[in-house]
Design a protein that fits this description.
The structure holds two protein chains of two kinds. Chain A contains 14 helices and no strands. By secondary structure, chain A is an all-alpha fold. Chain B is built from nine helices and 20 strands. In chain B, strands 6-7-8-3-9-10 form a six-stranded mixed sheet, with helices on both faces. The longest helix of chain B has 18 residues. The chains are: A mainly alpha, B alpha+beta. Chains A and B meet through helix 9 and helix 10 of A and strand 6, helix 2 and helix 4 of B. Bound molecules: adenosine-5'-triphosphate and magnesium ion.
Chain lengths: 283, 369
């Protein structure tokens, strides 16, 4: 009896692992192709797929970095600036808003919450035209500001923060800080923010990746080559001169574009741990 | 100077419920006052109003000579130990304790000195580098105390700080807090619903019920001269026995009769009650089984069959029925009384409590019998 149960358990474990391996394969395979192809030259790639890396890694990298038409280095810099800016602004101000709505009682609390939720249901495309007009009026066309400043108001991030704060910030902690002589803003910065670290890490990753990959708004606002972010540069590769088209270079550019995301993920993911508030108050 | 004074304070919560209808309470400087009462009677609310964490709906609250109705908590110079500890989970024990001092820009060496001193007193020194989650309940409790201790506040507020410690640790912490009060020489307001804590720690005890102060007095007075049946029943364990008794005139004084038991009393205030019922209160330890007391008591005897005898060590608790009421007596354990035995118990006539049946207020002025 027991044995059969154990056997069934083993079979199930194997099955689960097979499924997971398959899914992992689906996810990682394309990364593999990407990285392999970034080490091969145009003709090798056109010949077909290979599991083994090629020998043109440095050459491709050199080509990518030194193309006068696609300023990759400044692209990375711009993308980094915009993405880090967006991640910082979105997480900080969303956490602040969530804390405000959680910890204080005021008359317009409910309407404020509903208003934010309404914005959440508005797709970017709808407001894009108005946004571009606004940016024009503010003389910020062709600058990086409009690409990350709007992250201050990030309803989705706010909602996540709000749920998190409700579940993990006992009001007594805030009250204890007040009794200790902490100002309201100080309480937020020194007590609330550290407790929200895991939520901030998650949302910082999401916002970073999202902003890193976003194409639509930057394409509307940026026209100057030196201000372009990576997605615009990658897109402009397609429309580049057909005769000089080099697949190895394209793959290399995409690889270069992905590396920072992986680094950011590795850096932030160690903050995503459960139970930060453990032990603060008795349950 | 940090006296605390409530003047006609009303607290109504946002949902329209008035928790404190009209509070008048004067706490002296350097006094240790204990607020007791059943759950939900408004003890925490009162404490939180002193702290400034809860707004005052009506009336005035003074700390020292300062009207503090609209003073923010951080400007009141009050330290509070929360019912739930409320330790900062992301900070070490040391940081938890030094936080308030850092905010006040105290010099580093001084902070270090104070924290280490507090840690030494509370026996927390080995844990200074740990986060709260790596501490036991009792250790967390002590950190919460330490955090308040290092501050030298004007007023010290404690909301059931010992409620979830085991019995031994509780006794230990009780004396530590009492010692702390002696050393700090500040005003302490201590909330509890444990009457042992209240009786042993308080200079004065304030008994509350549904937001109304029932009696505010020194422990002895509360025990020996309770103002009403609620206080009489709340203070003392096991509870005071209450017996409905008929008042008769008997010569100079009066006679209270319950069943066969006839107790002579001479309370002047009873004149208005002749022919009516009052409530006679007798504490369990004031019902004596000693032979000489029983013989001397005449008709004031309570005779009953024991339903249950609980051996408590130095004492035996006797449970029985008399006059239609459940009764408890505490007798020395040298008397060998068992379930089913018939016993005679003599009430100590000097220590009777008499209450009006309707208002439940004490009928005082006991002249000596
Ligand atoms: N924020 C609030 N809104 C509405 N009612 C409240 C609020 N806080 C407390 N109350 C009510 O006020 C009353 C007194 O609460 P309080 O916390 O002061 O009781 P307590 O004496 O401290 O009880 P316990 O011994 O259980 O801690 C309770 O009936 C409670 O339901
Ligand atoms: Mg309470």
């Amino acid at each position: 009896m027991r044995e059969t149960k154990e056997k069934r358990g083993v079979a199930f474990t194997i099955f689960v692992h097979m499924v997971l391996i398959f899914l992992a394969f689906l996810c990682l395979f394309f990364f593999y192709i990407l990285i392999i192809n970034s080490t091969r030259d145009h003709y090798q790639i056109q010949k077909g797929f290979s599991f083994l890396p090629g020998t043109h890694f440095m050459e491709n990298l050199h080509n990518v970095l030194n193309d006068a038409n696609i300023p990759v280095v400044s692209g990375i810099k711009n993308s980094l600036l915009v993405s880090v800016g967006a991640a910082v602004l979105a997480t900080y101000f969303s956490a602040l808003t969530a804390y405000g709505l959680y910890a204080y009682d005021f008359k317009l609390k409910k309407p404020a919450f509903i208003f934010i939720m309404l914005i959440l249901s508005m797709p970017t495309q709808v407001s894009a035209l108005g946004f571009v007009r606004l940016v024009e009026k503010m003389n910020m066309m062709n600058t990086l500001w409009p690409l990350f400043l709007p992250s201050i108001a990030a309803p989705a991030v706010f909602y996540f923060m709000y749920s998190y704060i409700q579940a993990s910030l006992p009001m007594e902690l805030v009250e204890a800080a007040r009794m200790d002589g902490c100002s309201e803003f100080g309480t937020f910065n020194r007590i609330v923010l550290p407790i929200m670290k895991p939520a901030i890490a998650v949302q910082a990753i999401f916002t970073f990746v999202q902003t890193w990959n976003t194409y639509f708004i930057p394409a509307l606002i940026i026209s100057d080559n030196s201000k372009k972010t990576l997605p615009i540069l990658i897109a402009s590769l397609r429309s580049a001169d057909f005769l000089k088209f080099d697949m190895g270079k394209v793959y290399m550019l995409i690889t270069v574009a992905i590396v920072p995301i992986i680094i950011v993920y590795l850096l932030l993911s160690r903050f995503i741990v459960a139970g930060v508030t453990l032990g603060g108050v008795k349950e | 100077m940090a006296s605390i004074s409530f003047k006609h304070v009303v607290k109504t919560y946002d949902n329209g419920v008035t928790v404190i209808p009209d509070l008048n309470l004067d706490i002296n400087d350097k006094e240790f006052v204990v607020l007791v009462g059943p759950s939900g009677c408004g003890k925490s609310t009162t404490l939180r109003m002193i702290a400034g964490l809860e707004s005052i709906s009506e009336g005035d609250l003074y700390i020292g000579d300062r009207l503090v109705n609209d003073v923010a908590p951080k400007n009141r110079d009050i330290a509070m130990v929360f019912q739930s500890y409320a330790l900062y989970p992301h900070m070490t024990v040391y940081k938890n304790m030094s936080f308030a001092l850092e905010l006040k820009k105290t010099p580093k060496e001084e902070i270090d000195k104070k924290v280490h001193e507090a840690a030494r007193i509370l026996e927390l020194e080995p844990y200074l580098d740990r986060k709260p989650k790596a501490l036991s309940g009792g250790q967390r409790q002590r950190v919460a105390l330490g955090r308040a201790m290092v501050r030298d506040p004007e007023v010290f507020l404690l909301d059931e700080p010992l409620s979830n410690l085991d019995a031994k640790l509780r006794t230990e912490m009780r004396s530590q807090i009492a010692a702390l009060h002696k050393r700090l020489q500040t005003t302490f307001v201590y909330v509890t619903h444990d009457q042992t804590e209240a009786m042993t720690m308080g200079d004065r005890i304030c008994v509350m019920k549904e937001g109304v102060i029932q009696q505010f007095d020194i422990p002895q007075k509360l025990y020996n001269k309770p103002d009403n049946m609620f206080v009489a029943g709340f203070i003392g364990s096991p509870q005071m026995n209450f017996l409905p008794a008929l008042v008769e005139k008997a010569g100079e004084g009066f006679m209270l009769s319950v069943d066969s038991c006839r107790v002579p009393v001479s309370v002047a205030g009873l004149a208005d009650y002749v022919g009516k019922e009052v409530i006679l209160g007798i504490r369990p330890e004031d019902l004596h089984i000693e032979a000489d007391m029983v013989e001397a008591s005449g008709h004031a005897l309570i005779e009953a069959r024991i339903d249950l005898a609980e051996m408590m060590g130095s004492e035996i608790y006797l449970y029985y029925q008399f006059g239609g009421q459940k009764m408890i007596s505490r007798i020395p354990s040298k008397y060998d009384v068992k379930e089913g035995d018939r016993v005679c118990l003599a009430p100590d006539l000097e220590k009777l409590h008499i209450f009006d049946k309707d208002t439940e207020k004490a009928i005082h002025q006991t002249l000596s019998v």
